[in-house]
Design a protein that fits this description.
The chain is mainly alpha-helical and 101 residues long. It has one domain (3-100). The protein has helices spanning 3-25, 28-78, 80-100. Helix 1 (3-25) packs antiparallel against helix 2 (28-78) and helix 2 packs across helix 3. The radius of gyration is 28 Å and the shape is elongated.
Length: 101
Amino acid sequence: MDEDRLSGAGNDLKGQVKEGLGNLTGDSKMQAEGNVDQLTGMAQRTLGQARDSLRGAADTVSTQAGSVGEWLDDTIHERPLYSLLAAGAIGYVLSLLIHRS
């Protein structure tokens, strides 16, 4: 869990307490501070969730890239002639694209 999510939960709780005390005492300034703290907490939690999601996506991409790399390595070792022909074809197509411009 991201530290922003924890900080956000703390700010949200602090804001709820301030707002509640402001309601009990009739202190509108404390109520407003509580609302601001709650909004800050919500923003921090949202940022933390986004970071957690990005970390998960990055881990997935890294794992998939490793799998593709292993497959490619295995294919090159098992079928070197096909690999050489594929590399030559890719090079030929790239040269056509470069010289066409």
